[in-house]
Amino acid sequence: MKSAKTVFGQYLKNRGMLHSKQREEILDIFLKTEKHPTIDALYQLIRKKHPKIGLATVYRSMRVICDAGLAREVDFGDGVKRYEHEYQHQHHDHLVCLKCGRVIEVLSPRIEHLQETLAKKHNFTPIRHRMEIFGTCRECKRKEK
Amino acid sequence: MKSAKTVFGQYLKNRGMLHSKQREEILDIFLKTEKHPTIDALYQLIRKKHPKIGLATVYRSMRVICDAGLAREVDFGDGVKRYEHEYQHQHHDHLVCLKCGRVIEVLSPRIEHLQETLAKKHNFTPIRHRMEIFGTCRECKRKEK
DNA sequence: AGATCAGTTGACCATAATTCTCAATCTCAG
DNA sequence: CTGAGATTGAGAATTATGGTCAACTGATCT
Q1: CA-CA distance, A115 to A121, in Å (whole number)?
Q2: Using the CB atom, is residue B60 less than 7 Å from strand C?
Q3: What is the pTM of this model?
Q4: Is A21 within 7 A of strand C by CB distance?
Q5: Which of A49, A56, B53, B142 is the most buried (most CB within 10 A)?
Q6: The domain spanning residue A51 has which CATH number?
Q7: C1' of nucleotide D10: residue with nearest CA
Q8: Nearest CA-CA partner of A71 in A20, A27, A15
Q9: To the nearest whole number, what is the mean pLDDT of chain B?
Q10: What stretches of A19-137 show up as alpha helix (H) in DSSP?
Q11: Domain check: are B11 and B75 in the same one?
């Protein structure tokens, strides 16, 4: 199985794009994250090591990283783009806590299958999909009492 | 069954809010729409009849209309808020065509039920949820060939 | 009906996320 | 090593949305 970095390198080469230090570094930082960082969160992390890298470059690089199939944009309804790992990660859905912002990733093969069926019924060719449940997580519910 | 306007009137009264002409007119225009208008689309419609009504009022009124349970915010991933009818409309999901922008509303009680189960399994209290499948609709697929 | 007062509006400004511009810089094939 | 072409950094531009505040309006009371 090829590493994420190898995939990225090949993607760039195939497209005649350059393998810049910035892209390499931004990919590195992103791969080390485990949650759903925003552009700004990534930018802050990157700044510590490479204060010269600009915000616009982070935006541009994350787009390339998404196009290469290594990241996926997600949106939890708060008006900010977030990113999560896409390479070697199964598709999953999210339970988003409206109190604390915690995000629980959940797998549901049965829902996935029903979605396929639903699309087929309407002659619709699915490319990607998303499902989020917004509510209150266990911890926040306990605190309320 | 109470009409949407009646519900709105009662909501305003219960909260000590005023029943202004602007709110009435914006609700009227919204109720006549059938798709998923953006704020700007609604503003353009409203302007024709009431050129005095400002954009900020449309934003503010749509929030009130949502709070009153008559509309719901939706997001199709293009960075703009849209609104759809909520009163006397079942919850449904969306098939969003990435080529032509068409949105097909679909019902799936089985998916709804699995979502409930999923939330319960994680001790998560659901408040609302959304599911969108992005892809190519029948018409756009036909054109491709 | 007229006075009153809190809620609302319109016009404009503020903000935040994201993208664009462009001169300077870097990457890489030859 | 060099040149052509891609990329970057800095800051301006854009877009959607929300905030401010003086002027205005709707509902209530008399």
Answers
A1: 10
A2: yes
A3: 0.90
A4: yes
A5: B53
A6: 1.10.10.10
A7: A54
A8: A27
A9: 94
A10: 21-32, 39-49, 55-67, 109-121
A11: yes
